[in-house]
Design goal:
Layout (H helix, E strand, L loop, with lengths): L6 E2 L4 E3 L4 E3 L8 E2 L15 E4 L3 H8 L4 E4 L5 E3 L2 E7 L7 E7 L2 E5 L21 E6 L11 H17 L3 E5 L5 H8 L6 E3 L1 H12 L8 E2 L13 E4 L7 H4 L4 E6 L6 H6 L5 E2 L7 H11 L3 E7 L1 H10 L3 E4 L17
Parallel strand pairs: 3-4, 4-5, 5-6, 10-11, 11-18, 12-15, 12-16, 13-14, 13-15, 16-17, 18-19
Antiparallel strand pairs: 1-2, 2-3, 7-8, 8-9, 9-10
Amino acid sequence: MAVPLLTFTDRGIYCPAGDFHIDPWRPVPRALITHGHSDHARPGHAAYLASHAALPVIRHRLGPITAEGAAWGETRQIGPVTVSFHPAGHVPGSAQIRVEHRGEVWAVSGDYKTEADGLAEPFEPVRCHNFISECTFGLPVFRWQPQPRVMDEIARWWAANAALGKTSLLGAYSFGKAQRLMAGLPALGPILTHGAVEEVTAILRDQGYPLPPTIRVTRETTPKTHPGALVIAPPSALGTPWANRFAPSEEAFASGWMAVRGIRRRRSLGTGFALSDHADWQGLNTAIRETGASTVFVTHGYTAPFRRWLESRGYSAGIVETEFTGEETEPEPEAS
């Protein structure tokens, strides 16, 4: 029996013909990385290959590594296997990885979203025979509102808080969501950032991504020094002494999970904005259809119901057990 082009191991997705892994979670000799979030870009690999756009954040998060970058669509030969990186639309620099050998094509999506956000490179469908897809939000209940509408809701919340003399504290992941917010919101006042957010923002700004001026929070920063400000911080910083310095304030969280009221209640957040860097139900189905793939493997999220749905639509579908976590549980730095 022929060995599949990609196999699933306890270290991650593996290509036997090329002897490389994709987004492995345990140390390997050669790792191809889709993007810089910590559940996909792990430390300890001997060599890394990622898109040029993803490498600066990956280096920032992992420290000194042996790494090489590839341009979008550039083909690389790894042994007899051809690989290339294509925009995933998830966060700046995020990629899908196309793998081809002897006429067989696989695409590993990493994380992706199909709605262009004006910051990340827009999602590009990759034609393939076999597609490995996330399904973080793989239920019909998850259907996102257009980004301009959500940004308008956040802007109105910010303006209302400022009118009451309150600082607006918005929880968002430090890489991707935070920068998407600052790029998409109108300039209603100063934008202050937690150190973890500002470090990534500076890297992306240096790469040429269009980001507005922001101000890193220091010990001297108070509501008096920056009245009416919006503070963007990792979710872990909300409700901490770091955040309490901005009282009186209002807190909110931007995440796809905010579409579910029960999750908002468990987080004790009165205000939540459903803005996700992952594809919703419609986006997942559209992306899969546009690949032309006949076989789809799903990973992290609502894998069992989404697999059943795909099978009902005529796909050969399977579940890949991984250590990827998606949006809700991405580890964040401690507040500082």
